[in-house]
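Pilot study result, target chain (348 residues):
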Amino acid sequence: MKWFIFCSFIFINVAAKRTFEGYKVYKISPKNVNEVRFVKDLQRDGIGQLWDDQVNVDFEARIMVKPDNVENFLNKMDSSGVGYKVMIGDLQRVINEQMQPNQIRSSSYLSYSWDRYHDLDTIYKWLDEIVEQYPNIVTSVVMGQSVEGRDIKGIVINYKPEKEHKTIGMIEGTLHAREWISPAVVNWIVKEFLTSDDPGVRIMAENIEWHIFPVVNPDGYLFVIPYSHVNISGVLEADNYSDMYEIAVRGAEKAKERYNTTYRVGIAAEILYPMSGTSFDWVKHEANVAVSYLIELRDLGEYGFLLPPAQIIPNSLEIMDALIEMDRVTRLLGYYSKSTLILVVDVK
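Predicted structure:
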């Protein structure tokens, strides 16, 4: 019997020396298809750059406007009657604030800390340190190479290498290079699997062989400029929908207990937007996965992908709470006893 659990998380770091001084970000709320078309035309005409992959009726869209275009943008918005408001008054100031360490709350393990966001070299160095620190439990692994030839590096955490029939879990991060928070959360989970004495964490860590890749998009992580927003939502896709919904709802409820963060639960195309080529879809289709999830991280749209470092630890804690509860409910529903089951949790 073999189980496979798949999780995915996402994040980036600033490498380019471009400045966004004076750039503004606006929230726009299209109420009908004509207003959706108007919003899309703002980008087509070079007036602003949308931060959202999709623009839909009754969903807030975010658009970045450079200083030279602000007056034109405001004139068009005022004449159109489409609702809007300023989300970020100076994008560069927010970027600068995000790159400063959190002075109020911090945590670290070996050379890695959760008071700031880190570059790719720092993450890879930390993974090497983990392997050295736990030679009988952790091994290094390379999934492959990126388009530009960089290693997609990860680790395997296996407390019971002698066990023949095992549950195999996979956590991957940084599918979308612009999402800063994901590798920080992935690495927090690594730390918890190795150091936590919480009974729920120990069950997950010691009864599953974990394959963990904090950055599966190293090219983008190094070079993409950080902008756009993060949805807070849980998304599930599965044939056994009632069980999957139960697992997801219980996880969302548990995540809310700590900081009152709301995670929506439903079908991806309904609460986010239609998407294809996703990890949780691919694994489900190609490997006959019975349980498949996508969990998106903070925030509510106030900061976009520029989530302040002060929220790294709170987000990590609530996601860990959710995963422990989802694991518990999955076990209660009997899925770990089914020989052909593969569980996919894609967190980004």
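One observation from the pilot: The chain has eleven helices and 15 strands. A full batch analysis is planned for the follow-on phase.
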